[in-house]
Amino acid sequence: MPQTTQDRDHPASSDSAIRLRGLHRRFAGRGGAGTKALDGVSLDVAPGEIYGIVGRSGAGKSTLIRCVNLLERPDSGEVRVLGQDMLMLGDRALRERRRAIGMVFQHFNLLSSRTVADNVAYPLEIAGVPAAERAPRVAEALSLVGLTEKAGAYPAQLSGGQKQRVGIARALAPRPQILLCDEATSALDPETTQEILGLIKRLREKLDLTVLLITHEMAVVKEICDRVAVMEAGLIVEQGRVFDVFTRPRHPTTRRFIADTIGYAVPRGTVARLPAPRADEERRLLQVLFAGPNSTRAVISEASRRYGLDLDIISGRIDAIGEEPFGLMALAAYGPSGRIDAAIAWFGELGLTVTPLDEGN
Ligand SMILES: Nc1ncnc2c1ncn2[C@@H]1O[C@H](COP(=O)(O)OP(=O)(O)OP(=O)(O)O)[C@@H](O)[C@H]1O
């Protein structure tokens, strides 16, 4: 089955740090046809980028990210990491290759009986790194995450954010080129989430890492990712640069994710204070997202003149993704239904994104 994806800014796949092609993975179910966790997924992650995969529970995100280091084997498809065809590797070569791929987990997966330093040393022990070499590598990894002074502590003595720093240090100890983050901030409070995302961003710069992360939170993608893929039912339904996907979402699932993150419903009290529409007109609440050359308020007054509508600005704010700003405005549009539709279509032609808002959430 062809992949229903809408891709933008696809990098040259031969240069990809991670290249996935046509991945299928089905899990046997009780009696029935089973679950298609991956239904033909292709993806390219460029070296040095932070790439986010977002989707609701059950979309197939975990299965996909686990296919990159072959914790999960796809039934069919191609997995290339740093140019290496992973599915061709024997056990020993695969173990070696995995050292270039660090992984960070939602629930940290630390060994409670080991100190912080011994947790970080663990993957080096498994890899057979001699003890004399391990100590400086552990010190280096702990310094990168700012936890040098906790080397002798046990996981139970740490906060959630500190535990995740240990998880990251452990992933970095074998000096990987790629970091996989499986819902790395989902168990953390918002402030600690920001702290960990900031750390991942700094580590990417400092160590030239390529980061692939999965999350169910579009806010994480907005904060940290360069590009994003939206997954649903084992498929990527949309992918592209985060700014483009946020400001011009094409797939309904993406629109819902974006609305949850940046959209705002109009408070009930505000709606109650709006004038009622006349008998021959309709009132519709709209959110207009401005980005690029037409991001000016003049567009609103021109739409009002062109289509003979009253367009009341209820609220507005400027937001940004990375360094790129965009504007969000809530409008109450009054006029005949057909003319409101025509104005919405005209906004669309100008490249603005218009979304109906619920009255009174
Ligand atoms: N080992 C397994 N055995 C059977 N079914 C599985 C297995 N792993 C995943 N699945 C099923 O495959 C589908 C995709 O699961 P997956 O964990 O990849 O989704 P997800 O997007 O990561 O969701 P979540 O955020 O809840 O983990 C789900 O329907 C899940 O129940």
From TrEMBL:
Domain of life: Bacteria
Keywords, ordered alphabetically: Amino-acid transport, ATP-binding, Cell membrane, Membrane, Nucleotide-binding, Translocase, Transport
UniProt KW ATP-binding keyword: yes
GO molecular function, one term: ATP binding
Annotated ABC transporter domain residues: 18-258
Repeat recorded as keyword: no
Listed PANTHER family: AMINO ACID IMPORT ATP-BINDING PROTEIN (PTHR43166), METHIONINE IMPORT ATP-BINDING PROTEIN METN (PTHR43166:SF30)
Protein name: Methionine ABC transporter ATP-binding protein
Organism: Teichococcus globiformis
Biological classification of the source: Bacteria, Pseudomonadati, Pseudomonadota, Alphaproteobacteria, Acetobacterales
